[in-house]
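Data availability excerpt. The first of two example chains:
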Amino acid sequence: MDPLTLLAAARLSYEALKSGIAVGRELQGMAADLGSLFESVAGITRAAADPKGSLLAGKSAQQVAMEAFAAKAEADQMMADLKNHFIGEFGLAAWDQVLAATTQIKKQQKVDALEAEKNMEEFLHSVMVWGSVFITVLLVIATIVLIAIGLVHR
């Protein structure tokens, strides 16, 4: 996704969080918005690190680079504001704990995705092997039947 689309999603999540905080909602109750903001900011960071994907959209290199930089700067500011509020309410140790948990969960998700991909490859391989065996058996039976029919009619 391009940085501007990701930034729009980040803004929505950020504004929802700010509104929730303003009316006294607990951050735990806004987990979906927090998760969405984290994901959007991570996407913006990836897009800013390698912005060439937007060149296919017919934008100039300068425009792509400026959009990526501006989106990253705004996303960083949103995250800094959120971090300051979170630390003010729960403390620095809690913020570090959230970041550590986020990192651990992402690592586990990658491991799970790789394992699921490996399992799917093994399953498809098994299907191909057993499918080949089944077709071979059918061809042998068909050949035997055709030979038997040919011998009977002579």
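And the second chain:
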Amino acid sequence: MKSPFDSPLLNRLQLSVDYYKIHINDAIEYASVDYVYQNCLNQPAATALSSPYCQAITRSAAFGSAQLVNVPEQNLATIDTSGVDLSLDWSVNLADIWKNAPGRFSISESANFLGNYDTIAYPGAPMQKWFGTLGPNLSGLDAGAYSYKLATSFGYSVGPATINLNWRHYPEIHAASAVGPNNTTLPTSAYDIVDLATIWSLPHGLQLRAGISNLFDAAPPTTGATTGQSVGGVPISLAQSGQGVTNASYYDEFGRRFYVGLKARF
């Protein structure tokens, strides 16, 4: 959708909204150890030895105890997710606001609002609802089912130079293990990170770029902190600070850093 207004303040306003709904049956997934045992033990005695599930269980030749379970890849999983993606772009020539003011100011906003993210690991397994957690934990899926995510860019261009301030926001989220009534894992706090980037177009096909990643040196939140647990006043697990445990896919582990680069075109 483009702005219908002729005002210099609004004629460069654009908005796009996309709704997605994805449902996948028989997604490829590693079978769990429990699934292998379940299918082995359900075999008739006459065919048990030839069953691929029973053959996947390696046992000790001396004692008969299980030593290793090979989990095959099979079309087992069900994945269902939905949400809304929103993109908003706006810019204005500063001369339209202040007389003779140079350059152009712009704002770009990208947002994702998750509706649901549910998985079933294999037939007969319970459905896991990952909304608002660092799951899902199925192989091949990206962890991070945030209820929403925001990415905002503020830009200023004048002549051959452009500067952008980029801000990403992730809300508070629970660990994947927090799905269940006996959870002891603490939530991961909300996280904001800001990057600064500049580009200068120079003569002779040269382009100079420089910037600061993680401008405010935001520390990554821990994703493994837990509370202690006790039964009848007797401790059965100790609290963990989660120190050193985070999710590098979303949280910056390296702190503030600087870069500069030169690009040449021939």
